[in-house]
């Protein structure tokens, strides 16, 4: 079975990237004005764009794995296709960060002991347990996804599909319990794979709904209602707990955020083609930004740093908009002139034909 391509998800991917850029460009913004102060407060929601990425990735990867589970080259095709998509840009950026940026900013080179973690996707460990490290901090999320790609195909392959829902529930419960332990031990819950894995699991749960034909257009209004209710709940919790520093919030907030994006994805997958939502998500601008979203995410902190370093204008909005435009240009150049050279090899790593599990159906 061929998994159907859902163009609306490119729009969702673009929105997630734009949320993260908005967060990083404005979270520390200040010029003394009430407007900028308000924007910096709102920008905190942009950080949840990473959660949206996680939920979306969990869905997309799970539906691919389920649809190719019977392939003879299930593992080799999956891992090689992920490798040519992720590794080249990841390691190219590390080279830029560690060996080019110090020249441009006239700063010291980072010693190997502190950068070691990033070369092996282990940055979540020092960031969680307060060990010495130095590197592109936003790469923690790429480490989480890479770890998910390592073990999730194994579970999909060796566990019968009828048990998948139980496994997903177990992962969600495990992440919740680990956050309780981490908070009690004063460890970070934000960066560690197994304290954020429930968001990817929530995306996998969407794939289960797809298998069980629960993403039909008839369910659209129900998912819209649930999305609105979860958004209102999250907003109320944010207002009540803002600046409170409640430890329980560090445990439960990822559940509420992932639930919001779980229902958002369900809304998108059940919306009718030609609806206002579908048309919006399929706009050429959003689909284009979604196509280059990996580069947008990877390059934007460096662009922001260098823009502020070399451009003398201190206006908050000029710096943010200028950084955004430059990021889009660089991400576009990277995608077409660098990443595509490696994506070309995906055609050699196709899944072999074979009898596919009868439980898997494409959306639509």
From TrEMBL:
One Pfam family linked to the record? Acyl_transf_3
Give the GO molecular function terms.
Answer: acyltransferase activity, transferring groups other than amino-acyl groups
InterPro entries of this UniProt entry? Acyl_transf_3_dom (IPR002656), Acyltransferase_3 (IPR050879)
Q: Where is the Acyltransferase domain?
A: 7-332
Reply yes or no: does the keyword Nucleotidyltransferase apply. Answer: no
One GO-annotated biological process of the protein: polysaccharide biosynthetic process
Q: Which domain of life is it from?
A: Bacteria
Give the record's keywords alphabetically.
Answer: Membrane, Transmembrane, Transmembrane helix
Q: Name one GO cellular component term.
A: membrane
Membrane spanning stretches: 12-30, 42-66, 86-104, 163-183, 223-240, 260-280, 292-311, 317-338
What PANTHER family does the record tag this protein with? Answer: ACETYLTRANSFERASE, ACYL_TRANSF_3 DOMAIN-CONTAINING PROTEIN
Name the UniProt record assigns to this protein: Peptidoglycan/LPS O-acetylase OafA/YrhL
UniProt source species: Lacibacter cauensis
* Lineage summary: Bacteria, Pseudomonadati, Bacteroidota, Chitinophagia, Chitinophagales
